[in-house]
């Protein structure tokens, strides 16, 4: 029997993580076989700025994971959560070739999705990572799911496109090549983290995954089961460390230690650190809230905010988030389909999600109504969306 092995790699600002997993058919769960977690170099605000330095550390992370797993890796799913990660909504329309109205076909849907793609303003330096149809309209009637089989004369679609600088995707590929592995796909970090920690119910009612990394904070907002916005904010938990170092006049390593352990302190030092963390966390949540207001989702996510990434370990971060965003906020827990559910560290949400997506990519045959559209980019996530269509 063939082994179902998947590898996820996250090249972050503070660490480079590798996770090697195996899918167990008997239990229907993902089993962790190896983990690599090393200090990162050559990365700033989620972007690779020194390929040699980043590749050197990636090799170490990969070595740790493969040694633990007892297996070699030839390819992997990578994440990207750098400063250029963004999303936009495009609209397309199609007059259907039915004189008296007719049933919409799969080909009609593919054509209107292609029309939404054609409406995007060209950006020659950007890569489309993913695309998701948010909604359809048939003769101006709103259809939030698959419109195939519905009778109409005009079909419209709104599609979310997730983009990143082409140069950064090329840098990821260059790092992979230097350590001798191929890139299966590049996934937006908050979407990968969401795959590991969000239930389908939360995605349906409205929820946001907030991946608090060292250099950036990235968000994925879901409604009706699909992403409606993906965004990166150029501020992360590392800024808190820097503020503590300046405020207390201590080194960065000591500042990081005190950031993680200050809850056990007493007196003026604890109070000072609390003030620094609260101020900087307030800046982070203020940026997130401004984005929610911009897309008209502030205070309107019943599923709340799910925190992932290293910054989710900050003491009292949930309460700070609730006060700032006026929404339910909780630290991520893994879904039951993963061994991580037993003892989950939200720092590894992204690589765990990448592995789960890899299995879905393996299972999916690749044909069907969206196969032509998906060839323009984002094939994995497009197939993931297909699973939500009735």
UniProtKB/TrEMBL annotation:
Keywords: Cell cycle, Cell division, Cell membrane, Membrane. GO terms for cellular component: cell division site; cytoplasmic side of plasma membrane. Residues 6-197 form the SHS2 domain. It is found in: Cell membrane. One of its GO terms (biological process) is FtsZ-dependent cytokinesis. It comes from the Bacteria. Its main location: membrane. It holds the Pfam family FtsA. It is a peripheral membrane protein. SUPFAM superfamilies: Actin-like ATPase domain (SSF53067). Self-interacts. Interacts with FtsZ. Belongs to the FtsA/MreB family. Cell division protein that is involved in the assembly of the Z ring. May serve as a membrane anchor for the Z ring. HAMAP family: FtsA. This is Cell division protein FtsA. The lineage of its organism: Bacteria, Candidatus Niyogiibacteriota.
């Amino acid at each position: 029997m063939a082994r179902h092995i998947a590898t996820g790699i996250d090249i972050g600002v503070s660490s480079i993580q590798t996770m090697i997993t195996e899918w167990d058919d008997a239990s229907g769960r993902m089993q962790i076989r190896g983990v690599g977690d090393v200090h990162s170099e050559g990365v700033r605000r989620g972007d690779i700025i020194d390929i040699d330095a980043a590749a050197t550390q990636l090799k170490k992370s990969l070595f740790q994971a493969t040694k633990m797993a007892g297996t070699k890796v030839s390819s992997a799913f990578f994440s990207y959560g750098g400063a250029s990660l963004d999303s936009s909504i495009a609209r397309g329309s199609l007059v259907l070739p039915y004189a008296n109205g007719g049933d919409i076909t799969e080909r009609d849907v593919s054509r209107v999705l292609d029309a939404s793609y054609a409406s995007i303003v060209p950006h020659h330096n950007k890569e489309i990572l993913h695309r998701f149809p948010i909604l359809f309209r048939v003769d101006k009637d709103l259809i939030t799911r698959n419109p195939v089989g519905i009778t109409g004369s005009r079909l419209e679609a709104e599609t979310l496109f997730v983009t990143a600088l082409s140069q950064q995707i090329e840098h990821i590929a260059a790092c992979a090549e230097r350590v001798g592995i191929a890139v299966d796909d590049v996934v937006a970090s908050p979407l990968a983290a969401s795959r590991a920690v969000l239930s389908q119910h939360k995605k349906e009612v409205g929820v946001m995954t907030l991946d608090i990394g060292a250099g950036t904070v990235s968000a994925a907002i879901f409604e009706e089961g699909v992403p409606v916005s993906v965004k990166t904010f150029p501020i992360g938990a590392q800024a808190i460390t820097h503020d503590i170092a300046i405020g207390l006049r201590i080194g960065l390593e000591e500042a990081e230690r005190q950031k993680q352990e200050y809850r056990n302190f007493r007196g003026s030092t604890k109070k000072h650190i609390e003030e620094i963390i609260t101020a900087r966390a307030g800046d982070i949540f203020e940026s997130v809230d401004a984005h929610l207001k911009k897309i008209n989702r502030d205070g309107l996510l019943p599923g709340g905010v799910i925190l992932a990434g290293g910054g989710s370990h900050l003491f009292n971060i949930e309460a700070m988030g609730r006060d700032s965003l006026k929404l339910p906020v909780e630290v991520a827990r893994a879904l039951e389909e993963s061994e991580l559910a037993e003892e989950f560290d939200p720092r590894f949400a992204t690589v765990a999600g990448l592995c789960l997506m890899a299995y879905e990519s393996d299972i999916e045959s690749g044909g069907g109504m969206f196969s032509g559209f998906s060839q323009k980019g984002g094939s994995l996530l497009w197939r993931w969306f297909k699973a939500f269509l009735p």
